[in-house]
Amino acid sequence: MRAIFRKGLLGILAAGALAVGTLKIHRMNSDPKLQKNYPVAVNGKTLNIPDYEFNDTNCAMGARLVARDVFGMKYAECSAWDRLKKDKIIAKINSFEELDELAQDGKLSEGMIVGIFNPDSKRKEKYTVGFTHNLVYLGKDDDRGCLFTHYLGDPLFVENIEQLKNRGYEPRYIFAPQEQSQ
Question: Tell me: the pLDDT tens digits for 2-44?
């Protein structure tokens, strides 16, 4: 009787684990609901940044979807820190000044994802790859400098380097997709 109970319990646990895994895969592979488009002007050009509704923090999905929907770039469907394995590393950087120089030199292009360290991240102790958050580079505006978009939970932010510095962020990597879909 005990063996039957144990096998039944293991079966239930296995089914539960499979269901949770399936939900996670479904969530990663499904686009969240689009709330609206947020127009952002960059040197006279208007970009319509999709503002998706997220139930939790998912900066990596938000970055991937913005890069796809605005710039036609296809990044891997993965968490922020898995970009090191799944996308192409363009540069390892240590400061916003380096990031600005790369934008000036054309090595940081519109639609590229920047991996940054967020000192307020709940995940900073668990993930020790050096960064915890993803931003998408929108371009360099004459008045506001380099502009980035990112999600912190549900809210969409469009910020320049000074605003990101004020948050305590530190840039670490620049990524491009493994293959361009354009």
Answer: 555 455 544 444 444 444 443 333 344 567 788 889 899 998 9
Q: What does the block give as tokens for 77?
A: 């469907």
**Tokens 């997220």 correspond to what residue?**
54
Q: What is the dihedral of CA 31, 32, 38, 41, to 10 degrees?
A: -30
Tokens, residue 25: 């895969």
What is the distance between the alpha carbons of residues 95 and 113, in angstroms, rounded to a whole number?
Answer: 15
Closest CA to 131 of 101, 100, 87: 87
| Residues ≥6 apart with Cβ < 8 Å to 80 | 59, 60, 63, 115, 127, 131, 132, 133, 134
Distance between CA 150 and CA 43 in Å, rounded? 20
Check the CA dihedral 87-114-58-140 and report its sign: negative
Given a contact cutoff of 8 angstroms between Cβ atoms, the answer to whether 141 and 175 are in contact is no
Q: Report the 10 Å Cβ neighbour count for 53.
A: 10
Tell me the C-alpha distance between 73 and 181, whole Å.
Answer: 6
Q: What global pTM score does this model have? A: 0.79
